[in-house]
Model the fold of this input.
Amino acid sequence: MTYKTFFKYSLNLLGMLSITALLTETTFRLYHQVNPVFIFEHHDYNRFRGKAFADDYDFTLNSKGFKDIEFGPKQKNVFRLLAIGDSFAYGIVPYQFNYLTLLEEQLNQEQNRVEILNMGIPAIGPKDYVSVLIKEGLALKPDGVIVSFFVGNDFLESERAFYSHSYLFAFLKYLWNIRAHYQGNVFHGKAVYQDDQKTFSDEKFLEIEAARSRIYQTNTARFEVLLNHTLSQLEHIKKICDNNNIQMRLVIIPDEVQINQQLQTEVITALKMKPEAFDFSLPNQRLSQALLRLNINHLDLYPAFLQASAEKRLYKPNDSHWNIAGNQLAASLIRDYLSSVEWQIER
Done:
């Protein structure tokens, strides 16, 4: 075979492979629009979910590794809410103090028949929320979905890896990943929860908060990129819910640095910047404005937490997650919010 013939053969082969890949990519995308399939959503969140039946303080995770009782069949005349989020939804407090547990109790005290399925998984973000909903949530036949959005890191977690934009690559990655067997994580074990105990050292906690605080800078174009990535994922969830006649609500959870002025000063000093370079309410304002444009009904907890923090601590020391009091306040605020937006709880 001459070099010229080999080159011509290679070009023809490359052309056929390219056309095949393009047709396959198009087919996958069209099919996914009509019938969402979990294969085309990345599965990385499985690295962080709990281990089935693991101890979590004085509670036992369910068979799916979620911090909730076992998910049973959908019951008639019971409004089923799916709660999706990260470690805030999972909770660093014991199960009985988690805001979603408390919310379910409070809603049912008002003579409603409501169940909340807590599908919170630590260390995940908006792109994972889409995956959880498609891969596991829709099969549970929810009437509503509550997305808990944590300002502290959900913007930063919203960026997609370059390969995730290809459905063909996602399919090949799925075939590769199914060879592995997921075991799950044990987070708190049989530890005794202490509400006032520091989780991190002062130095480490300040390092964590400082690394997150670029989203509060007023003159950075980086936030616009992060916001757009975030909105694409949240809009995806909204479309999936609309297509399946599921009501969607979103709760915006503030980071401690947004309501703790002393911590703000420490962060600004650590970053060697001036106070006027920051607006710690800016991400909430921008996100809320965009959600209104997308017709995504939401509740921003920032104003109420800012006000309440003047009277009591709402976050576990050096942790950035709510303590018991923070969970109690969140549950009360979300309960009032669900009533005010006419979620049609009674069905």
